[in-house]
Amino acid sequence: MMRAYTFLLRPTVRQEQALAGMLRDHYSLYNGALRERRDAYRHASRTTVRYGDQSAQLKEIRAFDPERQGRWSFSSQQATLRRLDRAFAAFFRRLKAGQTPGYPRFKGVGHFDTVVFPRDGDGCRWDSTPHDGQTRVRLQGVGHVRVHRHRPVRGRAKTISVKREGRRWYVVLACDEVPAEPLPATGSIVSIDMGVAHFLTTSDGEHVANPRFLQAMADELAEAQRHLATFPRRTQQRTKRHRAAARKIARLHAKIRRQRADFHHKTARALVADHDVIAHERLNTAGMIRSPAAKADPERPGGFLPNGAAAKAGLNRSILDAGWGLFLGILAQKAESAARRVIPVDARNTSRTCPECGHLAKENRVTQAKFECTACGFTANADHVGAMNVMNRAGLGLCDVA
Question: Which region holds residue 287: left if phi is over 0, alpha if psi is between -120 and 50, else beta?
């Protein structure tokens, strides 16, 4: 199995300055490569510059600027050029598909926060057997940086990344050959229905409350954003107070993100520990949060009819705050590691179908919380009905497990 481990780095002051310099020089390389591709296409008879052409120039670039580019890992610079190449590949793929393409952008100091080392031992070395009880990672041009390793690393470190979040630095290990750790069989099967009023509801009728981390910190975030808005939007020189205000907003969002991830991990772990098979809806979160299309008013040229965009925005915010996609991904990873089975099923009309008689009607869903079948009169909680229908739809898969 492949697994990723994220650990907090504890660099010294000089090491932190070197890490910041490494990021700065890598995004400078990224921007330079992007400029070369753009200018070649615009001014040289639409010439296409590819990754192989730019990678071949790295030796000359490192020799020309040994202080900024020559001191960093050659393979990490190649990874930065591959990152740009993937951005262009995605741009052309969307262009051919008729979607909004989104041309690759130049990276600013706050929008390039990761440097990738494609192979352990090439510019970066993970110390898997510390001699003094302190784990370290050796980075070319930075030195041996202390790592707060809060859990053991299993498998073989394949790719190592250094990431900055606010004022914190992290090392991310992508490991393969990670052994599974099967849990004892429980003989229990469950299905879950994701929601907004409740984070999830099981087929046993149990509700897991939705913590709404973003909503809980909305007032503090709004105050911080109002303070940031008092500064001019476009200035040549960002002041110290402006940077401090922006960092405060970033810290609040990072805290919300950590709280949400902690909740997801604990909830998924509880499900995996208690059940052998878990069925859930196959959710298209990107489609669910899409804004409604504008409706032109035929009686007013240039005007539009109400389309419920304001109400939909509130629902979209709640869905994103719950983080269904992230949770289901974590659930699948933990289930694979524990030798459990996860079964995704079609999510259409799970809360409108009667689990007793199978009658499907929009009118069955009386309110957000109440389900009442118009055919047989069956009444239950709407989220519980959705979980029971997920269980019914996963019936064939459950037979396969047995």
Answer: alpha
Q: 216 and 155 share a domain?
A: no
Burial class (CB in 10 A: 0-12, 13-18, 19+), 108: exposed
Query: Do 200 and 315 share a structural domain?
Result: yes
Q: Encode pLDDT of 223-251 as tens digits.
A: 999 999 888 766 556 788 888 998 899 99
Domains in the chain, number:
2
Contact yes or no for 307/291 (Cβ under 8 A) = no
Q: In Å, how far are 54, 62, 108 from 32, measured between CA atoms?
A: 10, 13, 12
Domain hosting residue 170, numbered range: 3-176
> What phi, psi does 136 have (nearest 5°)?
-135, 160
* 206 domain residue, yes or no: yes
Q: Tell me the average confidence (pLDDT) per consecutive run of 10 residues in the chain, 402 residues long.
A: 93 96 95 94 82 94 92 96 96 91 88 94 85 85 94 92 93 93 93 93 93 94 92 70 89 94 96 95 87 84 83 87 94 94 92 90 88 91 92 64 36
Is residue 182 in some structural domain? no
Instruction: Tell whether 285 and 397 lie within a shared domain.
Output: yes
